[in-house]
Request: fold
Amino acid sequence: MSEFTVGERDFLLDGRPVRLLSGALHYFRVHEEQWGHRLAMLRAMGLNCVETYVPWNLHQPAPGRHRDVAAVGRFLDAARAAGLWAVVRPGPYICAEWENGGLPAWLTGGLGGSVRTRDERYMRHVRDWFGRLLPEIVSRQADRGGPVVLVQVENEYGSYGSDAGYLAELAALCRARGVTVPLFTSDGPEDHMLTGGSVPGVLAAVNFGSRARESFAALRRHRPEGPLMCSEFWCGWFDHWSGTPAVRDPGEAAEALREILECGASVNLYMAHGGTSFGGWAGANRGGESHEGGLRPDVTSYDYDAPVDEYGRPTEKFRRFREVLARYREGPLPELPPEPARLAAPVGVPLTGWAPVDAVLAALGGEETTGPRPPTFEELGVTRGLVRYEVDVPGPREPYPLSVRGLRDLAVVYVDGVRAGVLTEAEPRLAEPVAGPARVELWVESLGRVNYGPLLGEPKGITGGVLHERQYLHGVRARGLDLDAFGDGVSAVPFTTPPPAGGPGLYRGTATVRKAAGDARLELPGLTRGFAWINGFCLGRYWSVGPQRSLFVPGPVLREGENEVWVLELEEAAGAAGARLLPV
Reply:
């Protein structure tokens, strides 16, 4: 057992100055059987600590229902076994390019802008959640023989709000629930962020990607005493669908890291290993300086151009960082662990089964509702997935424009069973007018909830209404299909032979692995946009717009012999030519 404290200028371990050389690695973005390898990679790079967020929405899918909160404790045990300290960032808000910034959609759907404030309706849920989560952390603090040395209060709150009382209440809640290690906040190095996001008596840290001396000088204007820490050194960046891959020069990034360490500061590489947003949990951002512009969905890969890539391999950035970090560690650095096994050879995956999306919805969807206006995803209890809205255009009437008000985020529209087009938030009107009477179906998909900025918590689905000319169409029927519904399998879905031209629907096939299984990539030529599973494990969203062209398949998901593959294609396609597994 050790005492980890905050001194006037240094972190102290049993009274001795220590420096945290930390790296972010999200346990929820790495298959559990590969935690040990990724943690060993961090140690081999020269780090002595690992940092992780905790996504509330992953562990509490509905009020009163929790899912594997113990995974947090298992990861911290793995960190201790790897010889690393741990920094834990429990939120309740985490950003992390994660769906809704980690906040449950069932919570934000009811509270809207009252989240991340002292509103008692919000804080009641936070207290309940922390009551389940914090025991996993508290029991593994350094003063109890565990690896946890720091716990964060909220996350970059100064970029969002100025309710100092809210932060103070969260800090007090952590203390009341048994957190004894130092607490800290993290914000950008701007004055308004530091004043809005820091708490008296709680260590303040700053996040940046360059110009360390300037950033630490800004911090010192607010906090003349205490250890310097860059709680997020952005050594890479994340990607958006249809965007350009973010890449940072390894040498330039290594020099920025060197500057941080020359200032005598502790550091947390964000990310040291990014991993993958499995399960469709990737978030989204809004464009523009105000973060209120067009939606920019995040890709499934969270490679982040990190020193350890998505597949767990060292990069040139890893080698450059290792050279810098070696100067700040006593003795030789550990050797790199053996690489995980890779798939031995390409494997074809003929997609021989198919069911139309209507049939999948009938088998796995929720209850249908009818009302005067379209319900949102949140009102239907849909987190990640899609909703079919149906509405009738009365008649007889001449053709008029059909549009959707408040569409979030994308709708494939059918008129009397014939595909009529794709609507988006930016283009919410069908190209061709619609005459009545007619039956209109709108298959609306969420492309990821916003994880940062003032529009955090905005609802999904049709949030306004369906209009014919300027007239609202009422009597809307709605039924949701949540990705969680696939967790129990697809045996209830009536499969048949795929149509020759392909098209939307749930495809099923088998990948026969004849040699040892290992890490692989899944490619889906001919398909446009949707989600993929192997042996019931959701790999995440695919989308032909790129820049991501394949989905990572962790080796532990595969097995020798037959592997079942499901692909939920949501768009028209050139044809389901068949998937293939490729070695990484």
Q: What stands out?
A: The mean pLDDT is 97. DSSP finds twelve helices and 31 strands in the chain.
